[in-house]
Amino acid sequence: QVQLVQFGGGLVQPGGSLRLSCEASEFILDSFAIGWFRQAPGKEREGVSYISRSGSTTYYADSVKGRFTISRDNAQNTVFLQMNSLKPEDTAVYYCAAAAGDLDGSTWDVPHKYDFWGQGTQVTVSS
Which end of the chain has less Cβ packing within 10 Å, N or C? Predict the structure, then answer.
């Protein structure tokens, strides 16, 4: 059974930082491109960031550019999302997702392009 397992998340004050991680079981993560998505109550799931299989290509939503950083450690079979300068509007359930091939600038944030999904983790930014 292919699984993506997420760690991190929680409650943080505005301006704070959190790091999310996404680990793969039963498959080698470097065979997959990874995207991070989020979904706030009453809103559609939106793409946050993406990293290619080699790590050489990354994409970010405009709303998180300069604040979030995606990275991967293929030796650890893990992808990270470092989130700094968090804002209340970043509050959402965050999901990692794996795609069997690299995506491009027009498709990285399309949910149905991904084959496997993590369980989701809540991030709440509030004072």
Answer: N
Helix (H, G, I), strand (E, B) or coil at 30: helix
Residue 110 CA from chain centroid, whole number: 13
- What the block records as the tokens of 96 is 């990692």
pLDDT in tens, 64-94: 999 999 999 988 889 999 999 999 999 999 9
CA atoms within 13 A on the CB side of 54: 2
Residues ≥6 apart with Cβ < 8 Å to 124: 10, 11, 12, 91
